[in-house]
Amino acid sequence: MRIRQITDSSEWDTTLLSHPQAHPLQTWGWGEVKKAAGWKAVRLAGFNDNNTLHAAAQLLIRSVPHTPFSMLYIPRGPVIQPDDREGMAELLEHIKIYAKNFGAIFLKTDPAWPAGTAHTLEDMRFHLSRETIQVSETYTIDLTKSAEDILAGMRSKTRQYIRKAEREGAEIIRDQTGTMLDTVYEIYAQTSRRAKFGLHPAQYYKDIFRLYNPSNQYLYIASVNGQPAAFLWMACAGKFAVELYGGVSDSGQEYKSNFLLKWRAIQDMQAAGYTVYDLNGRVNEGISQFKEGFGPDATEWVGSYDLVYNSLLYQGWTRTLPFAKRILAKSDTHSGE
């Protein structure tokens, strides 16, 4: 396998999407989003003799402030067949060069492989980590089913709320210019206060809209009587359509437009040819109940795995993890991981 670094955005995305394991968080745009938040992105691709893609990894590198050390991260990767021992070994050997050059303490991965999938990570000296970045417990909808079957699999209450929103004239638009980003952030802030989860600063979301491939992101807003009431933000690549963020305003909860909004997104993602709709996490009881109403499969990915390069520093990192995360957050230009 020939492994080389790719430095052109179009070449990387075209190459990546030729592999069945491609994921939205491995696309060029997501690396650019994380660069704006203080990471360095390196894109590595391994090719067979016939020049087809064998394996790939968008490697994110994060320096530990005021030290010569760093952490490495491959979000929802590497892009490789899970049981490909030889290919994984070659890719990791190449990544080791970057680990040495940047003083890496460890490498973290969290591939979107269903739990129970036979894979080689533990054979490669990775160990399962309790410290996660991406969620491992989620819900997914099989978009190879017909729209009728997906609708029939929903709870009756969910179908009722979809019809209610339609009757009340909820309007769904896709924002392709970014003019609604401030409104979206306000809706998300209201949602976070109710559901008790944290937000990045507003600039982080503006960077996503600006830097992620516009043809692979879908920012939907639902309005009732001309007032924005809910939003849903998708990132898509390969077979995956992934919900990045979503929320409903305090006043918009009664209109149920968020039910119609999600149904519109499901239909659009199916029409666009994606086959896995990832609702991206079981956040809390209220949000989970909302997601469960759409009849998804409870899905668990294999989890987060760490490959340790410096065991002494890794022990220190894990023992002081809350402090370490605060240090990294302070070093961001505008947000924490």
CATH architecture of the largest domain: 3-Layer(aba) Sandwich
CATH superfamily of the largest domain: Gcn5-related N-acetyltransferase (GNAT)
| Total beta strands | 14
Listing every helix as H and every strand as E from the N terminus to the C terminus, the arrangement reads EHHEEEHEEEHHEHHEEEHEHEEHH
Average pLDDT, all residues: 93
Task: Give the helix proportion (percent range).
Answer: 25-40%
Strand content: 25-35%
Task: Work out the radius of gyration.
Answer: 20 Å
Q: What coarse outline follows from CA principal-axis ratios?
A: globular
Low-pLDDT regions: 330-337
Largest sheet: 7 strands, mixed
Question: What can you see in these coordinates?
Answer:
- The chain has helices at residues 9-16, 28-36, 85-101, 147-152, 156-167, 181-195, 202-211, 257-271, 285-292, 311-319, 321-331; strands at 2-5, 40-47, 53-63, 70-74, 104-109, 127-128, 137-142, 171-174, 217-224, 227-237, 240-248, 276-278, 297-300, 305-308.
- By secondary structure, the chain is an alpha+beta fold.
- The chain has two domains: 2-134 and 302-331, Aminopeptidase (3-Layer(aba) Sandwich), CATH 3.40.630; 138-300, 3-Layer(aba) Sandwich (Aminopeptidase).
- It has a seven-stranded mixed β-sheet, sandwiched between helices.
- Helix 2 runs antiparallel to helix 7 and helix 5 (156-167) crosses helix 8 (257-271).
- The longest helix is centred in the N-terminal third of the chain and has 17 residues, at 85-101.
